[in-house]
Amino acid sequence: MGHLIHRVTILGTGLIGGSFGLALHKDTTDICVSGWDRPEIVREAQSRAAIDKFFSGDIAPALQEADLIYIALPIAATLDLLPEIARHAPAHALITDACSTKVRIMQAAGEHFSNENGPLFLGGHPMAGKELSGITQADAELFRGNTYALIGESRAKDPRASAFVKILEKIGARPLWLGPPQHDYAVGLASHLPQLAAVALAGFLYDRLDENGLPITLAGPGLRDSLRLAGSSYATWRDIVLTNQEVLSAALDLLARRLDDLRERLGSRELEADFDAANELYKLLRSL
Fold first, then answer.
1. d(CA 250, CA 173)
2. What whole-number distance in Å separates Cα of residue 212 and Cα of residue 221?
3. pLDDT at 192 over 70
4. Domain 182-287 belongs to what architecture?
5. How far apart are CA 246 and CA 249, in angstroms?
6. Distance between CA atoms of residues 238 and 171, nearest Å
């Protein structure tokens, strides 16, 4: 099926888009990769061999010959561009995104890609990333061994979707089909909530720094591991939080109750059960 995709256009050549381009060059053959972004970013992507050709400004020329259009832009930018992508994408093309929430994206895609004889939209979300963004962080191995969520199993039998799945497998990703609400609930708990927890803990400690840098001057590797996500920027997370508010609000309430429970158990052996549950989840994560 991979032969259906010879020309790929990546919209947004930062961490995810740049890594996808690098992975295509490393693990596939006979695919020409074009990139579209701001001039300085897309030129950097070409200099790093993530793309073969670059476009900037008018998006139409970047799309007109593409078999696969890979949108690696923030959620708001993706929503803004979907109507224009729908106007200019070839009828045979597959369009997919890498946004971190899916309900709003799939609603918009349904409005703009409803023609059965036109381009196919397949929602996606690679469960891979780093706390730092940008083309300088791009890595051909970013997707290897990681789950890649695909949205809308009804599209799975379309040859274009099958061809894309084959590419994902070639670059080492593990495709997993989900519905949009199921996806947003799961990533809200497993990805977005840990980010907010890291922000809260980092902010709590920052507010308590003294003139000697305490308590941070006594921090060991454990705190660095716990706060790795605190290096992420608000710009990266703004759209994610805004489009998953309901799930995150409920999750934060439940986490706050769990913290209250821990406080009540500080002087009790009942706290051991919480450590046991945490240890079991840690083992499960290590086995994935």
1. 30
2. 19
3. yes
4. Orthogonal Bundle (1.10)
5. 5
6. 29
Q: For the chain, which residues make up each domain, given as ranges? A: 2-178, 182-287
Selected from 3.20.20.140, 3.30.230.10, 3.40.640.10, 3.40.50.720, the CATH number assigned to the domain covering 2-178 reads 3.40.50.720
Match 């708990």 to its residue by tokens.
189
Q: Which residue has the tokens 């469960």?
A: 127
**Distance between CA atoms of residues 67 and 24, nearest Å:** 14
Taking the C-alpha atoms of residue 96 and residue 82, their distance in angstroms, rounded to an integer, is: 11
- Residue 25 pLDDT grade (very low, low, confident, very high; cuts 50, 70, 90): very high
How confident is the model over 149-160, as a mean pLDDT?
A: 89
Residues constituting the chain: 288
What is the spatial distance between Cα 135 and Cα 119, in angstroms, rounded to a whole number?
Answer: 28
The secondary structure of the chain in percent helix, strand, coil, rounded to multiples of 5, reads 55, 15, 30
Q: Is pLDDT larger for residue 9 or for residue 1?
A: 9
Q: What is the mean pLDDT of the chain?
A: 95
Sheet holding 120-126, edge to edge: 53-55, 32-36, 7-11, 68-71, 94-97, 120-126, 147-151, 174-178
pLDDT digits (tens, 9 = 90+) for 228-266: 999 999 999 999 999 999 999 999 999 999 999 999 999
